[in-house]
Amino acid sequence: MRNALITGAAARLGRAIARDLHRDHRVIIHYRNSADAARELADELNGIRPDSAAALQSDLGAVADCEKLAREATDLWGGIQVLINNASAFYPTPIGEANENAWDELIGSNLKAPFFLSQALAPSLSENGGCIVNMADIHAERPMPGHTIYCAAKAGLVMLTKSLALELAPAVRVNAVAPGAILWPEQEEVDTETQRAIVERIPLARTGTETDIARTVRFLVGDPSYINGQVIAVDGGRSLNI
């Protein structure tokens, strides 16, 4: 059975991905602050299959944090074969109001941590034909007003995906998933009218679900052995109509 590390897995999309991959993987639930939620999820999954889930904490703010998490994860069950870089900060940074702390947090969580965690886990991933799936965003290519730093970070993550796919081949496949309107942001209040306007611009005329993302990640993790360096948009066609 393969071992998967999912960052930011205590809630929302990360939790859905962890539950889906747990069907045939051991899963490591990384969390930053959500200790109770992470441990509850680990207990839930261990109740289904003993010794199949664990929770590990890391801020992932520094290279040392990434390297420490990689060591702890590989030591747990003897290696990591699947890395899902899902942890992500998200909030607006309007021009004239953005500061260096916002830059460091948004670039750090969305680009710096995925790179250094991938680098730290590359030896383990390479041993067993492993794979990396990065959580990108449709706004990596089409910017979202007021979110310049976030969009730049996700654009960097898309290029990181392609670069790692080249650098780590043929031992490791690297792909990304770019969600559209799946879950409304927790950090921002999105009023009903704004939600309605967004949905109206989605060709499939509805928002997606956490399951849509988890199934796509599972597909990429499964055995699409000739898919590498790709970004799959899961957005109901919204990126066609932004």
TrEMBL record:
Q: What EC number(s) would the UniProt record show?
A: 1.5.1.33
Signal as UniProt keyword: no
Q: Which GO terms describe its molecular function?
A: pteridine reductase activity
Q: Which Gene3D superfamilies match?
A: NAD(P)-binding Rossmann-like Domain (3.40.50.720)
**Xref: PROSITE patterns:** ADH_SHORT
Protein origin, superkingdom: Bacteria
Report if keyword ATP-binding is assigned: no
Tell me which family the UniProt entry assigns to this protein.
Belongs to the short-chain dehydrogenases/reductases (SDR) family.
Instruction: Provide the protein name.
Output: Pteridine reductase
Naturally occurring in which organism (per UniProt): Microbulbifer halophilus
